[in-house]
Amino acid sequence: MTKKAQVMVITPHPDDAEYGVAGTAARWTRQGKDVIYIVCTNGDKGTNDVSMKPDELVRIREQEQLAAAKLLGVREVIFLHYPDQALEDTPEFRKEIVRLIRIYKPETVVTPDPYRRYVWHRDHRITGQITLDAVFPYARDFLAYPDLLEQGLQPHKVREILFWGSEDPNCRSNITDTFDIKIAALRCHRSQVGDKLSPEREEWLRERHKKMAEGEDYELAEAFHRVEIQW
Ligand SMILES: [Zn+2]
């Protein structure tokens, strides 16, 4: 039982992956790589609109995430539907991520950096931590989950993790040719960015990604802290 995908993006909320990795994801899918998204929470707290009902917001944000993923060429989006702002570092959540890693057998996993200091959404911190732990050692070890083994889910060794939002980036990815599609994917998240991503906001993003490319011979980058799993 395997549905192999080279890249698994594990994101706390609908729209985080677009800020963190969409330009790189688009480049990967153009190169023929299979990229899948795991969206941990349902995003049901993400609004300033007092008339918005949480259930309606969940429905809208799923559609927005699916539209963005389609634009980027992401093969599949899996929604785990944990409540927004309520992620915890639990054995059940970790096991679910291990299960998915063993099904899809990614070489690369992308997720938020759990070690960003101070103001960092708790769901981001916990998603990054759970993912790191799931990759190493839980997805790798035979005896970690005998019941998963019984279901035919063999251990899997992920090759690398890329963390977005890192204060300590050590890896840059050229998104000069895919910045426009990243912006288009962000525009799909209308409940978050409004009917129209403002020109000021777009310019702010361009400057941010220019800064991430500083010292490189291209204009725009997404920056990550990359950890190679050697064990
Ligand atoms: Zn988020």
List the helices and strands and how they pair.
Elements: E1 7-11, H1 16-30, E2 35-41, H2 54-72, E3 76-82, H3 91-104, E4 108-112, H4 122-138, H5 146-150, E5 160-164, E6 171-174, H6 179-187, H7 190-193, H8 199-212, E7 221-228
Parallel strand pairs: 1-2, 1-4, 2-3, 4-5
Antiparallel strand pairs: 5-7, 6-7
Helix pairs in contact: 1-6, 2-6, 3-4
This protein binds zinc ion.
Zinc ion (ZN) binds next to loops.
Low-pLDDT segments, ≥5 res: none
How do the SSEs run, as a string of H and E?
EHEHEHEHHEEHHHE
Which word captures the global form?
A: globular
**How many strands?**
7
How many helical stretches? 8
* Residue share in helix: 40-55%
Biggest sheet, strands in spatial order? 3-2-1-4-5-7-6
Quote the beta fraction. 15-25%
- Distance between the ends: 24 Å
Give the biggest sheet: 7 strands, mixed
The small-molecule ligands in this entry are: zinc ion
CA radius of gyration: 17 Å
Q: Class by helix and strand content?
A: alpha/beta
Mean pLDDT: 96
